[in-house]
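Tip: read the tokens left to right.
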């Protein structure tokens, strides 16, 4: 004799399966935490495992990179310069995670920026993978970056033009050429510190002469 499951039992069974599936799926904020840990440890392969093939990565008002392969190049470069991210004020919704970000790395340090702060970073998910990342530095951070670019650009044009042109022809900074960029930045940084010290010494000298009078 056949047994038939009543409609109420079918509904309860389906609800149970839905709850079970939901509970087994990692929450988006937990995924972002794992993504952050992979980034900070330089585990590029694991970091890429969170991304969709057609991912779009945008720094608002600056540049946009599309495709997992292109974003991987960014991650590889970040690993070389020991990029460290801190996510704060993390908020998760149905398919998005937003947060504020603090970033430190060797490149920023040489640029004279101890920590770069971002107004927001927004991750959009589809089928458990990140399909879009949008982020924007704070106004203060954007100004600091512009000041560095201007000063560095003027210095290399005058002192290391040939090296700079060779690197610029590559069009993008990668794990293969970031070392050469860091060498140039280190030379620029030392020159700037030397000039600052000379100005300070001159200021002290003028002050001493003024006190003698």
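Filled-in amino acids:
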């Amino acid at each position: 004799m056949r047994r038939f499951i009543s409609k109420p039992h079918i509904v309860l069974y389906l609800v149970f399966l839905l709850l079970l599936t939901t509970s087994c799926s990692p929450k988006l904020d937990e995924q972002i935490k794992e993504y952050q840990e992979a980034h900070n440890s330089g585990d590029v392969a694991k970091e890429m495992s969170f991304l969709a093939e057609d991912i779009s990565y945008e720094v608002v008002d600056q540049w946009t990179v599309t495709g997992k392969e292109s974003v991987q190049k960014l991650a590889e470069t970040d690993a070389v310069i020991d990029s460290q991210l801190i996510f704060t004020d993390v908020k998760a919704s149905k398919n998005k995670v937003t947060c504020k970000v603090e970033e430190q790395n060797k490149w920023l340090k040489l640029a004279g920026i101890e920590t770069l702060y971002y107004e927001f970073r927004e991750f959009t998910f589809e089928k458990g993978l990140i399909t879009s990342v949008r982020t924007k530095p704070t106004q203060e951070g954007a100004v600091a970056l512009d000041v560095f670019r201007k000063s560095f650009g003027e210095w290399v044009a005058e002192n290391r033009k040939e090296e700079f042109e060779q690197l610029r022809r590559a069009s993008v900074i990668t794990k293969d050429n970031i070392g050469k960029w860091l060498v140039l930045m280190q030379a620029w940084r030392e020159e700037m510190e030397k000039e600052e010290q000379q100005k300070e010494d001159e200021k002290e000298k003028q002050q001493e002469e003024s006190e003698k009078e």
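Helices lie at 7-24, 28-41, 44-48, 68-80, 106-110, 139-159, 161-169, 178-212. Residues 25-201 form a domain with the Nuclear Transport Factor 2; Chain: A, fold (CATH 3.10.450.50).
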